[in-house]
Design the sequence.
């Protein structure tokens, strides 16, 4: 039976990966951890405070819960990392290094997400191959490439079962992303439902790979479950589900919300990051080696996203009104 530790569990991916893992492996077999505490009143059954730059804290938690698999999600995203490059190095690099060290000492398997951010302007932009030029020009990308190499190294040198995927932008409605370049593709749904309009920080023609959260969860679980005889790459698999521009995404939203409008106020920093990333990944290695096969495209994701997000926003609105009433 697997016993899993998830770092960064309160972030965008962790908030949905933890419940998915619990459903699969049982509530008692998944320990969530973060440097924030779960919201008061949350029904979090098994939580530990773990700062992933603190090796001893990771090691103690792994020992206390007899963990055999670590999903290491704690990291700063691209735009925040560009604002705080030293902190990004410490958290992104320090975290993956310390998690791998604990894994080496304890025999844990490790999942680490890399990203489309591991590519750079010299990478072929279309159908970006699994193995290609990786010279990113962002601190986020530097830490992602170095993390990929470190995972390979710990496997080759010490036999650590380190696996991972290169995620594109991830779109979801449970927890917001924490400062990435692809965040516009999440914000746009919230603003479309709340205000019927959105001001986008990327140019209308910025094409990037994206994925809906249910597919991201399948990827994270799928790559860890496949038998290792099938793996030729093991780590840093390209995975994607769709690619689109802000114009195309807005057009799809308009099919559901006819009056929706978008305008643009380009943020030069995030635009430069987006311009340095691929337009579309070739994910055939993941498809061949562990049957990666995403379910959602732009149309089905948009329909589901709007359907699921609308009642959540309405509920938030009601709660806010009730709070205001009480205070008043
Ligand atoms: N979504 C991430 C970001 O924008 C990319 O992996 O930083």
Sequence:
């Amino acid at each position: 039976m697997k016993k899993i530790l998830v770092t960064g569990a309160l972030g965008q991916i962790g908030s949905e990966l933890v419940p998915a893992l619990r459903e699969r492996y049982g509530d008692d077999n998944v320990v969530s951890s973060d440097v924030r505490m779960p919201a008061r009143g949350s029904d979090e059954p098994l939580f530990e405070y773990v700062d992933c730059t603190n090796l001893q804290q990771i090691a103690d938690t792994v020992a206390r819960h007899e963990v055999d698999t670590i999903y290491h999600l704690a990291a700063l995203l691209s735009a925040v990392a560009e604002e705080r490059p030293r902190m990004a190095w410490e958290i992104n690099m320090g975290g993956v290094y310390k998690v791998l060290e604990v894994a080496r000492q304890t025999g844990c398997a490790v999942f680490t997400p890399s990203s489309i951010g591991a590519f750079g302007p010299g990478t072929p932009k279309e159908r970006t191959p699994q193995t290609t030029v990786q010279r990113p020009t962002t601190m986020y990308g530097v830490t992602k490439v170095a993390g990929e190499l470190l995972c390979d190294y710990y496997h080759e040198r010490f036999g650590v079962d380190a696996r991972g995927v290169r995620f594109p932008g991830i779109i979801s409605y449970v927890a917001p992303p924490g400062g990435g370049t692809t965040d516009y593709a999440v914000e746009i749904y919230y603003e479309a439902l709340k205000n019927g309009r959105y001001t986008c920080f990327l140019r209308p023609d910025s094409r990037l790979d994206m994925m809906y959260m249910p597919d991201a969860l399948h990827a994270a679980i799928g790559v860890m479950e496949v038998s290792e005889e099938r793996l030729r790459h093991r780590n840093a698999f390209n995975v994607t589900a769709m690619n689109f521009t802000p114009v195309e995404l807005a057009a799809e939203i308009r099919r559901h919300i006819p009056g929706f409008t978008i305008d643009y106020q380009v943020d030069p920093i995030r635009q430069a990051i987006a311009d340095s990333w691929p337009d579309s990944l070739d994910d055939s290695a993941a498809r061949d080696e562990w049957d990666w096969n995403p379910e959602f495209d732009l149309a089905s994701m948009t329909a589901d996203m709007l359907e699921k997000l609308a009642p959540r926003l309405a509920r938030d609105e009601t709660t806010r009104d009730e709070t205001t009433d009480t205070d008043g």
